[in-house]
Write a structure and sequence with these properties.
With 202 residues, the chain is of the alpha+beta class. It is 31% helix and 37% strand. Residues 22-126 form the Impact N-terminal domain.
């Protein structure tokens, strides 16, 4: 099986959605996140915005190869909120994303089935509202060489249409390139076989 070297995510936060059931209101939010810090700051922001809400249930998934995720029911019955939210993250196959559903209680209990449905639906609605993009999993390499080898290096970068993310061109030069995972070994070997040019993972 070919190793997967793409993943799906969102780049921007869409407009929130609203799902209502028996006077309870469920606001769905989605945020692009890269760390637990991002998760925390988005949650804090929402709690300020919706300070009178009853629950802020959420799920997130971060990472492309090593995945970390969490689902939080925030006081709702066990697995009635966080897991239905996380289920939608999985079903849309997205990562580096946080979904929060903010609930205002409407005075009528929905029961566990009603809650699962509400959290799932609000999450599905916000994902359908999001612009989901496919990105490649990249590996960064640092190429180090003397100035006199500049043309050789630049020619390969141009020929192979490699993406330079950083460069320092002085007497000794350093260029960082970002290479799609499935092409990484091939690109590494080209530079590695060259005399006087060093390449390593950045």
């Amino acid at each position: 099986m070919l190793e997967k070297d793409t993943y799906k995510t969102i780049l921007t936060t869409p407009e929130p959605v609203l799902f209502k059931d028996k006077n309870s209101k469920f606001f769905g939010y989605a945020f692009p996140v890269l760390s637990e810090e991002d998760v925390k700051s988005n949650l804090e922001q929402l709690k300020k915005e919706h300070h009178s809400a009853r629950h802020w249930c959420y799920a997130y998934q971060i990472g492309t190869e090593t995945i970390s995720y969490r689902a939080n029911d925030d006081g709702e019955p066990n697995n009635s909120a966080g897991m239905p939210i996380y289920g939608q993250i999985q079903s849309f196959d997205v990562t580096n994303i946080l979904i929060v559903v903010v609930r205002y209680f409407g005075g009528v209990k929905l029961g566990v089935g009603g809650l699962i449905n509400a959290y799932k639906t609000a999450s599905q609605m916000i994902l359908e509202n999001s612009t989901i993009v496919e990105k490649t999993i990249n590996i960064d390499f640092l190429i180090s060489f003397d100035y006199k080898n500049m043309n050789t290096v630049m020619r390969i970068i141009k020929e192979k249409q490699l993406n330079i993310t950083h460069q320092k061109l002085e007497m000794d030069c350093q260029i960082t390139i970002s290479v799609r995972k499935k092409e990484a070994e091939f690109v590494f070997n080209i530079f590695n076989n060259l005399f006087e040019i060093e390449i390593k993972e950045a």
